């Protein structure tokens, strides 16, 4: 969401965050409905998703390092403000938790360990979703607000170059961890 804020502004970041929240709600629903057992049967799919995710992170790291080296800024995929741009931002937000192993592991292993699944009623399920939303919206708003305030500072060439190098290092590290785990 921070990257979306810096690149396209707070509204795109909010749309991206809404997609992330929807993806998290998917995993939560899968966990509380007892479908985590089915999800564990898809282990080959998760291995493939990890490899694809690591390759994608490696590509993003390369692009960040390339940007730091050349100063070239990536061109937007969609014209700013276009309907396709908003939809693509939302879909990218949904794809983030669906392809990221951390929320998968959290929702499908830890939630059933701490929440007695047999005690969940439709009302308690809706209450838990409401709590998720109530916690996610102000947290995301805080991060988006800070990133929006930092947009001008982050656009200076020296800061942007340092941010690109840091981003490339972080993406490389995450890709390596993803493969090793």
What do you see in this structure?
The protein is 83% helix and 0% strand. The chain is mainly alpha-helical and 181 residues long. α1 packs antiparallel against α2 and α2 crosses α6. The chain is globular and about 55 Å long.
Describe the structure concisely.
The protein has 181 residues and is an all-alpha fold. It has helices spanning 2-8, 10-32, 36-40, 43-70, 83-99, 101-114, 122-149, 151-154, 157-180. It is globular, with a radius of gyration of 18 Å.
Keywords:
83% helix, 0% strand, 9 helices, 181 residues, mainly alpha
Give a topology summary.
Layout: H1 2-8, H2 10-32, H3 36-40, H4 43-70, H5 83-99, H6 101-114, H7 122-149, H8 151-154, H9 157-180
Helix pairs in contact: 1-2, 1-7, 2-5, 2-6, 2-7, 4-9
